[in-house]
Amino acid sequence: MSKRFLSVGFIIAIVGVLAATLAGARLRASSAADNPNSWGFDTANLDKTCKPCDDFYQFAMGGWMKSNPIPPEFATWGTFTQLADKNQENLRQILEAAESAKAAPGSNEQKIGDFYASCMDTPAIEAAGTKPLEPELARIAAIKNEADLQSEAERLHSRGVGALFRFNAVQDLKDSTQVIGSAFQGGLGLPEREYYLKEDDKSKQLRDSYVKHVAKMFELLGDPAEQSAAEAATILKIETALATASMKNTDLRDPDNVYHKTALAGLKTLTPNFSWEAYFKAAGHPELKEINVGQPEFFKALDTQLSATPIDDWKTYLRWHLANAAAPGLSEKFVDEDFDFRGKTLTGAKEIQPRWKRCVQATDRVLGEALGQVYVQKYFPPAAKARALEMVHNLIAALRDDLQTLPWMGPETRKQATAKLEAFAVKIGYTDKWRDYSALKIDRRSYAENQLRGAEFDFARRLNKIGKPVDRTEWGMTPPTVNAYNNGSMNEIVFPAGILQPPFYDPNADDAVNYGGMGAVIGHEITHGFDDQGSKFDGQGNLKDWWSPEDLKNFKARAACVSDQFDGYVVDGDLHENGKLVLGESIADLGGLTIAYAAYEKSIASKPRPPDKDGFTPEQRFFLGWEQVWGANERIEFARLMANTNPHPLPRFRGNGPLSNMAEFAKAFGCKKGEPMVRDQACKIW
């Protein structure tokens, strides 16, 4: 909830189509060490027919986009996908070595090797068919009343199936030292509530495709075609009711909206038909007397729906969500049908990825720190961690200087902001305390069973944190992940080893390019601590108002400028970016780039001016470094999915958006007022 991510890759995890989208771009961004004359940016990426002051994204990356059409198995293709593919190749080598090794039983090497081997064993998976689902399907068939329904919902939650709602362990937003249980809205099969409610033609067509997909999945479970069609209609009806009661994604971004700590008596009043005591007991935590309820209105509506909807319809609903969650691990006909909708229809990808890539990704999800521990030993030297930490400190220093001179911020707020900045925890590369997988059994007999045990292990691991002090050493991403994040409740910024590579950061490249790339990424995550969401948390990670009324008013006015700017960007037809949805990321991009530029300028202030390279000044190279981070092509289906569901703007808007507000960019390229890359009313916060 308070964790803020960098990349477009985050949407992929949300909709469950990682295998359809995160793979091999061949971006021209190899290490500068490969070419002694390189400075970290390949000028072949340029489109010199476009003026930099007209469309800098097109100028900087248009050549690359023209020569790199999206291959059929991808929905998007750019810098993040390039690095993800490189990391997948590295992880594949690790897993194939573990697969063939005679590792000690119970060791991490045995577990990652056997998990990967079971995933690659397609003959066994095909022979199993739907057998892995049969015990759970039998339990669902035996449901007789609401108590049985609720018991099965908890059981499915523990197996990674998000039916009805979601339950998790989270940091208490107002006491960041403690972990509490928290219930959130959920239970949908489409990516987001508006997919059920919008009445435009594209939304209706997508719902029709979804209903056909659900019906096909029921047929694969063995139901007759006519029955499957009726069952699919039931699913749409139930999920539409859940979607109608769900909070909008723009409202979910406000942490004040999703914090409602409620004791058992209040839970009974909120949901008289749902026994939370029975749920907690089934989840292994009968001691729970209080939880956070993220969206009370959703749970009120769900409680009513539990009684109003026939039990047989709920059984149909649970069967669908079980099959939906399990499909990628079942036989080929389930995998293909799942990809046909979640890959082709939702993202526009034309072909599914090779199985080995999907198995690498699955191993990373279930055994990420066991796999990541080997990854960093092989591919992330200690020197890389030290260099990244140095750049982080430079960026923090740049924001510290900036805070002292902000004209719109008063002294008391400035003092609080500076204290928060000084309290930032910085995590680089990988965890100092690796996860213990000793309680997780993995063997080669059944991929589906490995997936099931992995889900049960993770559910129990997370819920066992409830009622205990927060473990501030824990990471929310695995080491090979090409991403970064800011966690407001931890007041921390985190940079996995996977992103600390070219073109984000290259020790052999020009400093200007590195500051425009990794420097701006670091600045982005730092600034998240002060965006419209992160600014609600203090230096200890507590949800607390530390702003003076006048300063908060000034901040909101400046943030509104950014929101309005992104509202104006057209994605497709009448679909625009949602300024309120992407506000946090857009503030972080603008602030991150601003302080990265300041840090770079400070780094060269006492040195001889760096020479031009290929006709580009150091300042110009900084902005080219930023642009190549976002160079990408995406299918229109993926673009629409991003705009409808994701808090990150599309790459082309991230590339140009912050630059058009920066006088430093205009000066570097000689852009004049009235040209497209110079906004009439520039937005400036940090």
Q: Which consecutive residue ranges, at least 5 long each, have pLDDT under 50?
A: 8-30
Work out the radius of gyration: 25 Å
Query: What is the number of beta strands?
Result: 12
As a percent range, the share of strand residues is 5-15%
C-alpha termini separation: 24 Å
What is the 3D form? globular
Quickly give the structural class.
alpha+beta
State the helical fraction: 40-55%
Per DSSP, the total helix count is 28
Mean pLDDT, to the nearest integer, reads 93
Largest sheet: 4 strands, mixed
Strand order of the largest sheet: 1-8-9-7
Chain oligomer state = single chain
Please tag this protein with its features.
8% strand, globular, four-stranded mixed β-sheet, 686 residues, single chain, alpha+beta, 28 helices
Note down, in words, how this protein is organized.
With 686 residues, this protein is of the alpha+beta class. Helices cover 53% and strands 8% of the residues. It has 28 helices and twelve strands. Strand 10 and strand 11 form a beta hairpin. Helix 5 packs antiparallel against helix 18, helix 10 crosses helix 11 and helix 10 packs antiparallel against helix 17. It starts with a strand and ends in a 17-residue tail after the last helix.
